[in-house]
Amino acid sequence: MDELVAVADLVTDVLAAAGIRSTFDSGPGSEGRAYLIIDDGDNGRGVYVTWTPAEGEPRASGGESVTANAVERLQRVLRAAGIDAEETDPDFYPYYLEILRVPGPGAGHAG
Question: Whole-model pTM?
Answer without folding.
Answer: 0.85
